[in-house]
Amino acid sequence: MAAKLMHAVQYDAYGGGPSGLKHVEVPIPTPKKDEVLLKLEAATINPIDWKVQKGLLRPFLPRKFPYIPVSDVAGEVVDVGQGVQKFKAGDKVVAFFTQANGGGFAEFATASESLTVTRPPEVSAAEGAGLPIAGLTAHQCLTQAAGVKLDGTGPQKNILVTAASGGVGHYAVQLAKLGNTHVTATCGARNIEFVRSLGADEVLDYKTPEGAALNSPSGRKFDAVIHCATGIPWSTFEPNLSPNGKVIDITPSPSALLTFALKKLTFSKKQLVPLFVNAKAENLDCLVKLVKEGKLKTVIDSKYPLSKAEEAWAKSIDGHATGKIIVEP
Questions:
Q1: What is the sign, positive or negative, of the torsion defined by CA atoms of 116, 112, 141, 251?
Q2: Span between the terminal Cα atoms of the chain, in Å
C-alpha cells in the first residue's frame, strides 16, 4: 500500500494553533516488525496534542517535523508486519500511539501490536477512540494512586473529581462509582445534571464559593482527589483532605511538583502525587470490556470529519468540551 497516498493533517513547526494544521497527501505507511496497519475510523484529541504543538514539551516532542498529531484511535487492521501474532486483517481494534510517533490525524496509521486491543462489535469506533489517554489516566489515578478496587470490594473511600465533565473527569466519575466510593465532583453550572447522570453523589459548581473552596456538601473529607482542573492551589485542597488524603494531579505544574517534593521531604501524610500515565494494553482492554458490558460510557461532545480537523482542534483548545471530541477520517 506504500505506493498509494492518503489524506492526513500535519504541522511543520511549533505554534500556529488550528491555523498551523495543514492538509496533505502522504504515502500510506508500511507496518514494520510488530506493527499493524490500521484504516482509521475515529480519532480523539487530548489536550496533550495541542500542548505538544505549542512547544510545551520541546525539545523532546515532536521528534521531527512535519508531524501528524493525535495518539488515540480506533479502526480496522488492513495489514500486519512481521512477527504480529494477535491480529489479522479485518480485526476491529482500539490503539494508542506514543506522542513521539503520533499519526492519528490520517486515513491510515501504524500501531504497535503491544498497544493495540480488540474492539468488540458492541463498542463503536468513536467510543473506543475516546478511551486510551483519558480512560487510562482515570483508571491509573483510581486503581493505582487512589487504591480503589473497581469490583466494589475494599473499604469505602471519599473521592473528589475536579473538572468532572471533561475527558478524564467523566471517565473518573464512572470508574470511581464501580468501586466502593462516595464521589463529589466539580464542574461548570451547565454540566451539573450531566455529571450527576454519570453517578456522582454530590456535584459542585466550581464558580460558587462552596465549589471554589471544594467543600463537600455532606462535610466529607477526601481520601483522594482526581485533579483534572488547573489553577487550584494546595492550600485549597489541604483542609478538605482526610489525614492520609492525596491529590492526584494529572497536569502537574512546576508549583505542584514543588509541593510534591516538600510534602515528601517533611513526611507529610497528606500528599500531592503527580501522575504520568503508563499506558498498558491490559488496562485499555479492561476499559473496552467495561464499555462492552455497559458499565462505562464514552460521552461524545462533538464529531468532526478530518476535513474540518482545525475546528475540532480549536474546540479542544477552548477547553469547554463535555466528554470527548471525535475526528473521523
A1: negative
A2: 18
How buried is 74 (Cβ within 10 angstroms: 0-12 exposed, 13-18 middle, 19+ buried)? buried
Burial class (CB in 10 A: 0-12, 13-18, 19+), 183: buried
3-state DSSP assignment of residue 188: coil
Q: What mean pLDDT is predicted for residues 114-136?
A: 97
Which position has the grid cell 505506493? 3
Instruction: Write down the H helix ranges in 28-182.
Output: 47-54, 125-129, 132-140, 167-178
For residues 70-82, average pLDDT = 97
Instruction: Give Cα separations from 172 to 83, 91, 116, 211 (angstroms).
Output: 36, 29, 22, 18
Is the entire prediction scored with pTM above 0.90? yes
How far apart (Å, rounded) are the C-alpha atoms in residues 56 and 61? 9
Asked if the model's pLDDT at residue 66 lies above 90, the reply is yes
Element (H, E) at 159: strand 157-162
> Is residue 320 within 8 Å of 31, Cβ to Cβ?
no
CB burial class (10 A; 0-12, 13-18, 19+) of residue 61?
middle
Calpha distance 151→148 (Å, rounded): 9
Longest CA span, the chain: 64
Q: Rounded to an integer, what distance in angstroms lies between the CA atom of residue 263 and that of residue 137?
A: 23
The model's confidence at residue 168, banded by pLDDT at 50, 70 and 90, is very high
Q: d(Cα 71, Cα 219) in Å, to the nearest integer?
A: 40
